[in-house]
Specification:
The chain is mainly alpha-helical. The protein has two domains: about 90 residues, no CATH class; about 80 residues, no CATH class. The chain is about 60% helix and about 5% strand. The chain has a three-stranded antiparallel beta sheet. The protein is globular, with a radius of gyration of 16 Å. The protein starts with a helix and ends with a helix.
Length: about 170
């Protein structure tokens, strides 16, 4: 995905959540693996082992599902568990045909989660939309404070400053 495609998706979707497209684009720039030509690599996943132990293992899902929920994906590196929290897996399951739903079993099965993640990382609009949904939840927790919203998104104390600097540098 090119920078232009990502920027256009941010412009189209971010306002639906009352976010500045530059903010969402800055998150994409901060989070996503980029190729030498500047294009984005949305299919890069990062496993967060500590996250697995703390948040996902207690769910007692199939091992494959737990591992996939403990990794981050897409151009904003949304955690699998965060996608679950904003209803992505249920939404994806409902998009499937009845035959496919029968094959998958249920939205959090060891078959459904990989299928949903594979679809997520190739659909730019889905990545931006569900990232905005999740960021909106963080903004609500932060009572509108942008710096705190970004801190809740990532957890690192210097993350908000990095994203805000990238956002400021955008024309």
């Amino acid at each position: 995905m090119t920078k232009q495609q990502v920027w256009e998706a941010c412009q189209k979707i971010a306002p639906n959540y009352n976010f500045d497209p530059k903010l969402i684009f800055a998150i994409c720039l901060q989070e996503s693996e980029q190729k030498k030509d500047g294009s984005f690599s949305p299919d890069v996943a990062r496993l967060e082992q500590g996250y697995y132990r703390k948040y996902v293992e207690p769910l007692e899902l199939a091992t494959t599902s737990e591992v996939l929920l403990s990794a981050s994906y897409g151009i904003t590196q949304m955690m699998g568990l965060s996608l679950k929290e904003v209803g992505y897996f249920d939404w994806y399951y409902r998009q499937c045909t009845l035959d496919m739903q029968k094959l998958l079993g249920h939205p959090l099965s060891q078959f459904a989660i990989p299928s949903a993640i594979d679809a997520y990382v190739v659909n730019l609009d889905w990545m931006i939309n569900f990232s905005c949904k999740y960021l909106n939840r963080k903004r609500e927790l932060a009572k509108g404070d942008l710096w705190l919203t970004l801190k809740y998104w990532n957890g690192s104390s210097n993350y908000p400053d990095k994203v805000l600097a990238k956002m400021k540098g955008l024309q």
